[in-house]
Task: structure prediction
Amino acid sequence: MTNAWTFLRLLLMISYLGIISTISAQELKRSCGTVDHLNHLIESHPNMRQSMQRIENNAFRVTNGSVKSVKGKISIPIVIHVVYNTAEQNISDQQIYSQIKVLNEDYQRLNSDTSNTPDPFKAVAASSGIEFRLASKDPDGNPTSGIIRKKTGKSAFYTTSNNIKYSNMGGSDAWPRDKYLNIWVGPMGLGVLGYAQFPGGPAETDGVVINYKAFGTMGTVMAPFTLGRTATHEVGHWLNLKHISGDGPCGVDDGVADTPPTDRQHYGCAMGFSSCGNLDMVTNFMDYSDDGCMNLFTKGQASRMRALFAPGGFRHSILNSDGLENVTPIATVEPPATIKLSTVGENRARIDWEQLKGVSAYLVRLKREGTGKWITKPFDRNFVNASKLKSCSQYEIQVASVVGGEVSDFSSSLIFETQGCTDEGYQNPMEHGPSNIRVSSLTEESAKIDWRKVEQASNYKVQYKVAGAKQVYSKIVTDNSASLSRLKKGQRYLFRIRANQGEKNGAYSEISSFVLPGQNSFATLRTANPNMGGFAEFVEAFPDTDAMKVELRMNVTEQQAIRIWVKNVRGKSVLAKKVYQISPNKPLIMDLSHLPRERYYIEIEEQGGFDHQVYLDLR
Result:
């Protein structure tokens, strides 16, 4: 008996490890648990089919005009239930605010990536006119932040059990659904990113559940689900939207006329894929695409969502909720206008900015020159003491404001250099030109250039011109920075700097460059594999061959060197940094056929420090 029990335990352990291995392998693929959850509800609540049919009938009456539709903006109070087992899972308020910001942008078509909507679908893309606000009043009439935090002994929650929605099962009880949208955030089992309850289900479980690894745009989020689109997708289900495929073959309908029929869910970013005789709308929020590929709801989807709030609609009562009483209307949130370097040492620096009225917190992001990696942290004060910095290095810092659940854009950059520089390892700037050159504050018509100060230099001369042009402009400055104005937008500029000591002129630095806003420095990045695609504007997929090759073209007027890294989604480099030469009208071909069929990021750094990142799916 003992041997049998030992064998059984071993068998269970092997099975468990197999499950964990499967989860790990599938974590990076969108997994929506809503359909499984719906099927379970229908089995356990036989009346749900009838309830859902009544909802469909009312939506039809609103569509054909027999029931008056709701006019104006619809405001929905949200309560966030953070259910955590570990400190990491107890996500910050700022991470929650970042998700509310995404919901408001996506549902009102204010998202910054609307330009990525394919041309055939731009005419039907639409705002739903729905906004989301953290509740200001709880069910008992008391003031609230709209955020509840519950410690749990559960290591994971699952779609069928719904334990996360019950306090006596390790979760958090729902607030009344006729007044609030309940969103639970916690650890999900089996690699599920989230699930929602369709309208018509039980009141005590009504709402949306999101994995803490896919909620918001910062903190614990995991690539490629870092843009908050999991919540956008699942809230769509809560608002009665189905997957655009209808979860069936061609002919199965999602109830929306302007979403083309498709026979499958699309993973990654399958741009250009067609089925059922149509171009598939893989950029719709209700497909399975990665966050960076999603960017639209349609007019039909907007009408279907808003029908829920019409008289007789399942969520009509939420229009009378008092959950948003005494909430200040959403106003434009601005970042600090002025950021100053107060003190700086070899390994630390203090940065201050103006204290803005009404701002509850700030998001600060910092990166070291050449790394391209932002480190973002929240602060409740108007200064930061940055520590553990690298000596004799340039850093870039930006600050955003947080007001309630709204987050501003980031401020203009402050560039500073830590102390500890010595002459060792540095070439004589009089013989080789100034070093540590940095471009910042780019606008369509201006740029600022900084460089390491040259001791005893009386002034500096900056020469600059449009790449490919003959005319050269010069500017003499006495400080180690120069502001260039009246430039041409979208143009690439070349420049160099020299230090002068009295009558003695030093040597010019190597030629550097920058590109002003107005056009991409990369014209196209084409992938030959039909399953490869990306969400950068310069990425296109061509289904004419199975070769794993990338064709890179850049908008340059002369040959220059670029550096390329290829990394997997875990950040590990699979193709070390290599230097390539790229020329005008001559593409660079990269052969990636030796790589496993996985997801990758290609990081490209131009001469002058400008970097770009492209997401590719080689599966």
